[in-house]
Amino acid sequence: MQEQGRNSFEIEGVLAEIGQMRYSPGGVPVLAGRIEHRSRQAEAGLPRNVELELQVVAVGDKAKMLAVARLGSTARLTGFLAAKSLRSRMPVLHIDTIEFLEGTNHGIQASNEA
Predict the structure, then answer these.
(1) pLDDT by residue (tens digit) across 32-46?
(2) In terms of Cα–Cα distance, which of 64, 69, 78 is closest to 111?
(3) Number of other residues whose CB lies within 10 A of the CB of residue 18
(4) Which DSSP helix (H) or strand (E) runs through 9?
(5) Dihedral over alpha carbons 108, 10, 66, 60 (to 10 degrees)
(6) Parallel, antiparallel, or unpaired for β 46-59 and 91-100?
(7) DSSP of 90-110, one letter per residue?
(8) Nearest 5°: phi and psi at 2?
(9) Phi and psi dihedrals of 63, rounded to 5?
(10) For residue 1, what pLDDT band results from cuts at 50, 70 and 90?
(11) HSE-up (13 A, CA, CB side) for residue 12
């Protein structure tokens, strides 16, 4: 087994795509989607506009929460990055925590502790 390294990622953005719920062979819900991020960051002391889209995947209870989210909702997602597949090395964010940033008291929240 390989030594465990740090792999944690956090992003805020707009939910731009929410796919159809599917189930693993063991019956666990899995849902893929996409988040769009726009911000202004400092790089080498200079401002930089950042815009990106990132594929995301939610499993279990997080998949159920993502399934009922509104497209266009603002959310903070945390989790880890993994390759999409053996053939595609594009990164996908595997969601550990979903925090909806709109609505009463910043909306609904889900985490691994739930």
Answers:
(1) 999 999 999 999 999
(2) 78
(3) 19
(4) strand 9-18
(5) -100
(6) parallel
(7) -EEEEEEEEEE-SSGGG--EE
(8) -75, 155
(9) -65, -40
(10) low
(11) 7
Both structure tokens of 112: 């691994």
Q: Is 63 helix (H, G, I), strand (E, B) or coil?
A: helix
The pTM of the full predicted model, rounded to 2 decimals, is 0.83
Query: Which of these, 61, 57, 104, lies nearest to 77 by C-alpha position?
Result: 57
Q: How far apart are alpha carbons 56 and 53 in whole angstroms?
A: 10
Residue 2 corresponds to which tokens in the numbers above? 């390989």
Q: How far apart are CA 55 and CA 99, in angstroms?
A: 17
Q: Which residue has the tokens 């594929």?
A: 55
Q: Is 43 helix (H, G, I), strand (E, B) or coil?
A: strand
What is the distance between the alpha carbons of residues 104 and 100, in angstroms, rounded to a whole number? 10
Structure-token match 């731009």, residue found = 16
